[in-house]
Amino acid sequence: MSELLFHMVASGPKPVAPFSHAVEAGGFVFVTGQMPDSPEAPGVLAEGVEAQTRAVMRNLSIVLGGIGLDLSHVVMARIYLTAFERDYAALNALWPSFFASGRLPARTTVGVTALAYGALVEIDVVARRPGGAVSPAAA
Q1: Residue boundaries of the structural domains of the chain
Q2: What is the pTM for the complete model shown?
Q3: How many CB atoms lie within 10 A of CB 121?
Q4: How high is the pLDDT of residue 139?
Q5: What is the CATH number of domain 5-132?
Q6: 118: buried, middle or exposed (CB in 10 Å: 19+, 13-18, 0-12)?
Q7: Looking at residue 87, what is its pLDDT?
Q8: CA dist 39 → 11, 22, 60, 78 (Å)
Q9: 107 and 76 in contact (C-beta within 8 Å)?
């Protein structure tokens, strides 16, 4: 059984609670839900679900990039929306733009009552290293 690796990416977003940016086990990488702020401006959110989704995906890319992966390695995403009925269609229209054609990860989207910072969207992902290899030393 492989050892767990706990990743904190120096260039990544500032955590809103005590957690690792990602935890790796057996070639799978579990990335903590990312918020729609930026490493440069913690807690400052863009307006609208489209802009916030782009910011979340940028943060996910930063975390994945910090451990040698990218969005093409994502196998599963969980999306949390505070205004599900209002924002679900807009999210669905934007979502495919983050992935290669025909390579959408499995996904669950749920409505929630609130998110940190008053965000409209939060996304966490599970990624897999090519060949299931274990990460070299963490960032």
Answers
A1: 5-132
A2: 0.91
A3: 30
A4: 42
A5: 3.30.1330.40
A6: exposed
A7: 98
A8: 7, 16, 11, 22
A9: yes
